[in-house]
Write a structure and sequence with these properties.
The structure is a single chain. The chain has 176 residues and is of the alpha+beta class. It has 7 helices and 5 strands. The chain has one domain: Nonspecific Lipid-transfer Protein, Chain A, CATH 3.30.1050. A 5-stranded mixed sheet has the order 3-2-1-4-5. It is globular, with a radius of gyration of 17 Å.
């Protein structure tokens, strides 16, 4: 048998830096939204204690890990999968696919239907994590971009849109 040359993909430092920042920011925003938004609180209440989920790119990241503690407190746990046991792992098949998702060129349901995502864990918990991500994206993004990122833009009250968004953004940036 003849030897073959293995072709390794090129490194993409811009994508890795952008995705690392976005995943960090979204992880912190999930932590903040769990304290502010009643729907996000409800989704996390239905998850078992010490439950963690991650979102990232195959094979070596970047990742975002969010966990619920024993007392029900939601925390962003960083991006190192080796440090935290993960109950639900949502992985996109490449960093390019995660980049398409986080540059809002396609929504999570479209990425799933195009077979770009691998889910290891309970399907109901994965659906809850996607609902949480959708709510957080509505809080973080302007309406015209959020419409691209989620399946259906919600009809929220003006108070929830303005005050809720302000509280989530303040808590995300300050870490309170």
């Amino acid at each position: 048998m003849e030897a073959f040359i293995e072709i390794k993909p090129g490194r993409k430092p811009f994508q890795r830096i952008y995705l690392g920042i976005m995943l960090w920011f979204v992880g912190k925003a999930i932590q903040a939204a769990a304290r502010v938004d009643s729907e996000v609180k409800k989704e996390f209440e239905q998850m078992p204690p010490n439950y963690t989920f991650s979102l990232g790119a195959f094979p070596n990241g970047p990742y975002m890990i969010v966990g619920k503690g024993e007392m029900g407190k939601v925390r962003y746990l960083g991006g190192d999968i080796a440090k935290h046991p993960v109950n639900l792992e949502m992985t996109l098949k490449s960093m390019g696919n995660l980049f398409v998702l986080f540059t809002f060129q396609e929504s999570t349901p479209i990425a799933n239907s195009r077979d770009r995502m691998i889910v290891s864990g309970d399907v109901p918990q994965a659906c809850a994590a996607v609902r949480i991500l959708n709510i957080v994206q509505v809080y973080l993004l302007p309406k015209f971009i959020a419409k691209l990122a989620i399946k259906r833009y919600p009809r929220w009250s003006l108070k929830r849109h303005t005050l809720g968004r302000a509280m989530v953004l303040i808590r995300t940036v300050t870490g309170i």
